[in-house]
């Protein structure tokens, strides 16, 4: 539970963000702040829980968290459809995943799309929803946003005294014996949970946007590298899957920089124009560079 001092730190920062504070209730003595670990995966591994926005507010002196909080306030002012308690509670339940979804929505709007939020994947036959649906070249496109996190055993290696092997680019700190990298496994899980269950009736073009900010490293081999180039030959996605857009944000010298790479599914049978336009989605427009990603 939150003590009085912790509550005041969190609520003082929250009060400085008018739109965010309008959709997030103040922290109180009943607010539970968890350590970031505690969820057991089906494979028996302890993985990082999603951080609540209260935990981000508590650590808002951190450069990245401070920028993300300011960015959310800015995006709420632009996209009033998200300025509601429903999205507020999503931020409470899972800050990083919700932040990625808001970023992607903003990118869709900036590139001229009119995204439908939480569209039913198979109306009248199922209740599963994608994150967004847009239209490109007269074709409906489903978008699923994925925000992977590090397993605890990997995250725990970041300490003052590095653990042996952490910085060995030939080893990395993941299990290389498996056929799929953990990030690849997460994408497979999202595909199988949301879309595969409706096959063969479902065949609407679908793409996965993966925010790897929280697992990305400039140190080659640190986490092992998901090989998205060969992913489509190792796992047989259907021909309606367009590809995977991998993007991440780096925070340096009080500036944020976005980098993105689109990996095409060679089996995709739709218009090449769809893949081309999606590949540019997370490249900030000139307007975004000046208005969104401020120092």
Secondary-structure map:
Elements: H1 4-15, H2 18-23, E1 37-40, E2 46-48, H3 53-58, H4 63-78, H5 85-93, H6 95-110, E3 116-117, E4 132-136, E5 139-146, H7 152-155, H8 182-194, E6 206-211, H9 228-234, E7 241-252, E8 255-264, H10 272-279, H11 286-291
Parallel strand pairs: 5-6, 6-7
Antiparallel strand pairs: 1-2, 3-4, 4-5, 7-8
Helix pairs in contact: 5-6
Fold and architecture overview:
By secondary structure, this protein is of the alpha/beta class. It has a domain of 169 residues. It contains eleven helices and eight strands. A six-stranded mixed sheet has the order 3-4-5-6-7-8, with helices on both faces. A two-stranded antiparallel ribbon has the order 1-2. A hairpin with a 2-residue loop joins β4 and β5. α5 crosses α6. The protein is globular and about 55 Å long. The chain starts with a helix and ends with a helix. 34% of the residues are buried. The C terminus is likely disordered.
For this entry, give a set of tags.
single chain, 6-stranded mixed sheet, 11 helices, disordered C terminus
In short:
This protein has helices at residues 4-15, 18-23, 53-58, 63-78, 85-93, 95-110, 152-155, 182-194, 228-234, 272-279, 286-291, and strands at residues 37-40, 46-48, 116-117, 132-136, 139-146, 206-211, 241-252, 255-264. By secondary structure, the chain is an alpha/beta fold. Strands 3-4-5-6-7-8 form a six-stranded mixed sheet, sandwiched between helices.
